[in-house]
Automatic annotation (TrEMBL):
One of its GO terms (biological process) is UDP-glucuronate biosynthetic process. This is UDP-glucose 6-dehydrogenase. The lineage of its organism: Bacteria, Bacillati, Actinomycetota, Actinomycetes, Kitasatosporales. Pfam families: UDPG_MGDP_dh, UDPG_MGDP_dh_C, UDPG_MGDP_dh_N. SUPFAM superfamilies: 6-phosphogluconate dehydrogenase C-terminal domain-like (SSF48179), NAD(P)-binding Rossmann-fold domains (SSF51735), UDP-glucose/GDP-mannose dehydrogenase C-terminal domain (SSF52413). Pathway: Nucleotide-sugar biosynthesis; UDP-alpha-D-glucuronate biosynthesis; UDP-alpha-D-glucuronate from UDP-alpha-D-glucose: step 1/1. It is an enzyme of class 1 (oxidoreductase). Substrate binds at F154, L155, R156, E157, K211, F256, L257, R258, A259, G260, G264, K331. NCBIfam families: NDP-sugDHase. Keywords: NAD, Oxidoreductase.
Amino acid sequence: MALKITVIGTGYLGATHAAAMAELGFEVLGLDVVPEKIELLASGRVPMYEPGLEELLAKHVAGIEGSSGRLRFTTSWEEVGAFGDVHFVCVNTPQKHGEYACDMSYVDAAFTSLAGVVREGALVVGKSTVPVGSAERLAALLPEGVELAWNPEFLREGFAVQDTLHPDRIVVGVRGHGERAEKTLREVYAVPVGEGSPFVVTDFPTAELVKTAANSFLATKISFINAMAEVCEAAGGDVAKLAEAIGHDDRIGAKFLRAGIGFGGGCLPKDIRAFMARAGELGADQALTFLREIDSINMRRRGQMVEMAREALGGSTFLGRRVAVLGATFKPDSDDVRDSPALNVAGQIHLQGGQVTVYDPKGMENARRVFPTLGYADSALEAVRGADVVLHLTEWREFRELDPAELAKVVASRVVLDGRNALDGERWRAAGWTYRAMGRPRA
Ligand code: UDX
């Protein structure tokens, strides 16, 4: 009989994982402790913007016309315990308030609740990003006869559905030989493994570390190119050309070498901090002191963008000056504004007296919630109306497709600063703009 799967925690990761499991043919039950979330999902809608996710849910959520009916949602732990052969724990692990370490309270609560209801012989699979050593501790909370595996998740926002259905690797941490856990997870992931996704089996600590190591590497790559941007700014070089040229070396690779205002979001910043905190607890802090530098290079870029804007406005004050900000989310194709560099820059300028107007294709609602005192406009054209300077801070396709000649008619001053190195500078210059990008010559 086909395995019955539960997904505990239906945020970004969980909602996507649940829909993907239903797509792979399993009967799935998703649980969340927030009833409003469950209600929304049960009607086939998602509380965030993620391309393709709503369509996938509608295809499987029970009760929706024409759906497979394989996906249901609940708030009942008893139901979850009775239903599941495999339980995926997908709750979030945010940064602790005022500390680098991550907050494990949701994971701990999920394991405690699950432990009270899980059937003997079931498999519990952790997917949340946790400090190394957690799996060993959490395994002890589960009753006799219930195995634990650790299966980190690597999905990117904006590509969550694709990354979940066609993962570029599946990593499984098991205890001892863990043959039963491995066999069960090979069954769960039979389709992607059949399509060629590598299946890497290892121990608990290595599986936990794979996730934090991967995110640390990506953060390092971005901060590396941003450090090069700083040097280019001082030396009159062009970081975009430099990235293109070093990217041809396939040991380096061209991806994640886009210089700009740096990384943000719900993962990279908090994961590298939690990693440093955990290494400290383990007495291995020296190994990760470089991540402190990665973090500060990254944060410095936001300040540098503010300074570029100040300079474009004559070098002294933002008081009374109108600043248009294109982009609020931490990356395009997402409505997520958590630790968003774009919103951070907009906020800094606003706090220094600038009159900031923000437009983002999908992030307006979330941005307003986080930063209600900023100005917001309903379109890029409205945002730039009367602006003394235009800041391009999230690289949405919509912004690349703007007609600089149209915008030129409504701004007070034709100056655009590209914080993502993504606009076509030549096109903007041809339309009469002063175009400046981070880490590149003034032209
Ligand atoms: C990341 C990891 O990529 C993913 O594997 C993990 O599971 C979760 O964390 P995500 O947070 O969705 O995913 O964002 P990602 O695409 O990695 O981008 C992170 C940030 O880096 C964004 O703010 C993006 O704008 C920035 N970035 C990315 C750059 O500044 N330059 C680049 O070249 C690439």
